[in-house]
Design the sequence.
């Protein structure tokens, strides 16, 4: 027996979509997307720029209509009851949707008014969100003077004013510095744990999907090319490895004898040893080299990233994201 | 609350937002006041002597030129407000916050209503200032209280029409720069009407245009209400133009807002 409160039929997903299609002119942006996202889970839509992530969010958040296909969000049909859907969702986009001419506090109060909260309740909620997102000091400053990370936090805080049950986060950390990104991740995790909301996240970063999502779907040129947990996805990607480079073919050969599963590249004089990227694997590799008394010229650790996922799943890479991915 | 009172509450919220913007960044509002004030001073002091003697016998009642030109310039304050509205709407549309509004359960009309009502309030304040300055430099209307109320009402209606039209312009404009250019024909039209000189002094083709364009009956009605010159059928024409343009502007802006989904 579980103590899960039964507010809706347990089987009703927070978001379900069937055959969503959208084109702009000749360009097919979404080419038949099916989704089922259970309540209270984090779902990540992973893909490079131009894959159709934002279009998917725009359709599911009632901003644009699909050319074909149906979807239900929070139990309401997107096409027939968009106003019911809007009442249940919150959207934080890629570009901070804040009013730059107002202060942070005024932005939150604006949301409270538009959610028709009574004045005192709105003030209480605004103060609470400012405190929670560490924005109290910035409360009276015009938003145009805040840093990118603070604006993004304010954006999310504004989304939360209405206590949405389903939150769409369209690339919530794109363009943020690593520290702000971690803060954002913590906030998102707390939301799921403390309030049980459903989160639909889009991202270009495998690491982000890995950190936050229960399930990940990979979107490429308007189609879902894979879906599963982060573990399942990594299994279909060629694993991480340690690359050792040697000065001579002789050294390469003698090293290769000590690593059973390694791949030899005689032209490059390199050896690829499978690895999970952990310290202990790295230490083990070094120990083997020491024991065999072979000197490697250089060593690089390679962890699977979005490029690997894409190369494996689609046969083409993601040039724009390649350098950013490893962070 | 019913959906109608939600719509009213949302519109009020949007209006408060726009007035807050205007008070914090008053440069746009100021430009709507400065333009007609400059015109007033220019036409009264620089051109007034020549123009005034040139149109003696025209329906100025034989008085000073300022009595002829002031109603026209007051009306220009309404057209100047149109530029501010178009720019304000366009700038707002380029911000991400409009997409946020669209994903919220708020009345669709509230965003535009807030802009339009805010602009009408600002423009009416500008009109009041221009009237005040005109009175200070010698404008002597002979209007009764009722005529004043009618004149203000007509100006309000014209402002509403121009504001809806310029809201539409702001919505379809790609950039704030083009949004500020779009209403320029509106600000220019009064010159090609009876604002500065009577239409019978114009060459035939221009006169024909001047007599049938919307601003001329509005100016003539305004002049009649304030100065007691003949209104004739201008009053009905002015009302019809204002109501018609309001409807066109409203429907246009509403459908333009429905179409635009940015990004």
Sequence:
């Amino acid at each position: 027996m579980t103590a899960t409160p039964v507010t809706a039929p347990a089987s009703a997903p927070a978001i379900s979509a069937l055959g969503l299609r959208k084109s702009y002119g000749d360009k097919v942006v979404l080419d038949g997307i099916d989704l089922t996202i259970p309540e209270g889970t984090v779902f990540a839509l992973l893909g490079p720029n131009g894959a159709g992530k934002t279009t998917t969010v725009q359709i599911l958040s009632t901003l644009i209509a699909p050319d074909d296909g149906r979807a239900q969000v929070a139990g309401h049909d997107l096409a027939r009851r968009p106003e019911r859907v809007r009442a249940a969702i919150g959207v934080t986009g890629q570009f901070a949707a804040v009013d730059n001419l107002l202060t942070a506090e005024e932005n939150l109060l604006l949301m409270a008014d538009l959610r028709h909260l009574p004045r005192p309740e709105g003030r209480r909620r605004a103060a609470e969100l400012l405190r929670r997102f560490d924005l109290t000091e910035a409360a009276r400053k015009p938003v145009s003077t805040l840093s990118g990370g603070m604006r993004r936090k304010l954006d999310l805080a504004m989304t939360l004013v209405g206590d949405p049950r389903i939150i769409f986060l369209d690339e919530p950390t794109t363009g943020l510095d690593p520290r702000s990104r971690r803060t954002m991740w913590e906030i998102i995790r707390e939301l799921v744990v403390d309030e049980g909301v459903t989160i639909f996240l889009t991202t270009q970063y495998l690491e982000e999907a890995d950190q936050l999502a229960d399930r990940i779907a990979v979107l490429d040129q308007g189609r879902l090319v894979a879906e599963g947990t982060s573990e399942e996805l990594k299994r279909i990607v060629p694993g991480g490895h340690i690359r050792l480079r040697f000065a001579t073919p002789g050294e390469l050969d003698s090293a290769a004898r000590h690593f059973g599963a390694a791949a030899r590249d005689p032209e490059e004089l390199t050896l690829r040893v499978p690895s999970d990227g952990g310290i202990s694997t790295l230490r083990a590799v070094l120990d083997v080299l020491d024991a065999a008394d072979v000197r490697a010229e250089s060593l690089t650790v390679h962890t699977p990233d979005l490029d690997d996922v894409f190369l494996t799943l689609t046969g083409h890479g993601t040039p724009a994201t390649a350098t950013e991915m490893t962070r | 609350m019913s959906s109608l009172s939600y719509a009213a509450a949302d519109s009020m919220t949007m209006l408060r937002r726009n007035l807050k913007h205007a008070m914090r960044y008053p440069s746009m509002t100021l430009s709507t006041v400065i333009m007609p004030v400059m015109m007033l001073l220019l036409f009264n002091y620089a051109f007034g002597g020549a123009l005034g003697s040139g149109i003696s016998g025209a329906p100025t009642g034989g008085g000073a030129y300022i009595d002829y030109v002031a109603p026209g310039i007051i009306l220009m304050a309404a057209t100047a407000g149109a530029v501010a509205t178009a720019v304000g709407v366009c700038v707002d549309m380029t911000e991400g916050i409009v997409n946020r509004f669209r994903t919220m359960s708020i009345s669709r009309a509230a965003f535009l209503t807030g802009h339009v009502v805010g602009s009408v309030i600002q423009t009416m304040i500008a009109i009041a200032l221009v009237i005040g300055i005109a009175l200070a430099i010698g404008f002597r209307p002979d209007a009764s209280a009722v005529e004043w109320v009618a004149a203000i009402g007509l100006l309000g209606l014209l402002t509403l029409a121009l504001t809806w039209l310029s809201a539409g312009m702001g919505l379809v404009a790609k950039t704030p720069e083009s949004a500020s250019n779009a209403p320029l024909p509106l600000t220019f039209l009064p010159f090609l009407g009876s604002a500065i000189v009577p239409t019978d002094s114009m060459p035939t083709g221009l006169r024909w245009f001047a007599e049938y364009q919307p601003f001329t009956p509005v100016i003539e009605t305004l002049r009649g209400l304030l100065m007691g010159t003949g209104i004739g059928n201008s009053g009905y024409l002015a009302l019809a133009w204002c109501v018609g343009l309001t409807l066109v502007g409203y429907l246009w802006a509403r459908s333009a807002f429905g179409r635009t989904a940015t990004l």
In short: Chain A touches chain B through 31 residues (CB under 8 Å). Residues 239-303 of chain A form a domain with the Alpha-Beta Plaits fold (CATH 3.30.70.100). Confidence is low (pLDDT under 50) at residues 1-6, 317-327 of chain A.
